[in-house]
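Hi C.,

You asked whether I'd gotten around to modeling the 195-residue construct. I have! Everything is below, sequence then structure, no commentary in between.
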Amino acid sequence: MKKILLLFLLSFLFTVNAQSNDTVFIKKNKSQRVYILQDRNSNEYNSLIDFSNFNTNVKTSELESLGMNSKWLPVYKYSGNYYLYIPCDVINDRKYLITDNNIQIQSSEVTSYVINSIKKEQKNVFINYTEPNSKENFSLKISPVDKNNGIYKFITTNKQLSYEIIMLDANKYKNYNVVINDCTNNKVNEFEFDK
């Protein structure tokens, strides 16, 4: 009986210790838990590269000839390091799939835009694309921030707006930890990363 109790106690301690090594809490209250997940084998971690909502049966040879990947995930800086992010509200979960003919962007749903042109000038890739319904034109400039680690700046402009987001070549996602904003109610604020 003592051996069984000792075995149970050791098992419990190892489990608690393993969880504490994999999870670092940034914020924790009754409506929200924000934490850094380091377990590369967890379901949450591997959900980041789920592109099943996208049309992935597409041609990418022209894009690849420019040295670019087709799948992209946003990364954010926190305490000087880049992190992947799983937001509280899926509308803030932005992914890109770029092919030779279109750009698919996920926010709450995947929207597909028609590519008019792709060109590379020095280290930057420029993509002009159109929203198929409104015929609104956009320009995307992709610039390397840290090419060896797969980090690029995406700057999107059109007549009314200009915004930028730091993106990661999805092939390199295993090199980064993930911040998870786990909320019981989707009305909480998203985690604010460093500027």
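If it helps when you're writing up: The first strand starts at residue 23 and ends at 29.

Thanks,
B.
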